[in-house]
Amino acid sequence: MNMRALLLAGVATLVLATSAHAEQAAIQQTAPAADQSDTPEARSLSGDVIVVTARRKNEAAQEVPLAISVIRGDSIEATGNFNVVKLQQLAPTLQVYTTNPRNTSVNIRGLGVPFGLTSDGFEQGVGIYVDDVYNSRVAAATFDFLDVSQVEVLRGPQGTLYGKNTTAGAINITTNQPTFDFEGAAELTVGNLNYKQAKGAVSGPISDTVAARIAVASTTRRGTLYNVRTQRWINEQDNLGLRGTLLFKPSEDLSITLSGDYSKQDPEGFGTTFVRVGRTQRALNRQYDGLVAAYNAANPTRPYSVPSRDPYARLTDLDANLNAGNKIGGASLKVKWDVGAGTFHSITAWRFWDWKPENDRDFTGLSIVSRSQNPSQQDQYSQEFRYNQEGEKIDFVVGLFGFKQRIDTQGTEQQGPDASRWSLTGAQANDPSILNGLTATNTQYLKSTSGALFGQASYKLTDKLTIQPGARINYDKKSGFYQRVVTNGAGTAISCSPAPAAGTVLAAQCGVYQPQTTSPSVSKWNFSYDLNVNYKFARDVLGYATYAKSFKTVGINQNGLPLTTANVPDLSASTVKPESVNHYEIGLKTQFFNRLATFNLTAFRTDIKNFQATVNGGQFGTVRGYLANAGKVRSQGVEADFKIRTSDRFTAYANGAYTDAKYKTFVNAPCPPELSGGTSQAANATPDYSQPGVPGALSPRACDISGQQLPGVSKWAFSYGAEVNTPIELLAKEGQIYLGVDGNYRNRWNSNASPSIYTNVKGYALTNFRAGFRGEGFDVFAWVRNAFDVNYIENLQVAPGNVGLIAGQTGDPRTWGGTIKAKF
Question: Signal peptide position in this chain (predicted)?
Answer without folding.
Answer: 1-22
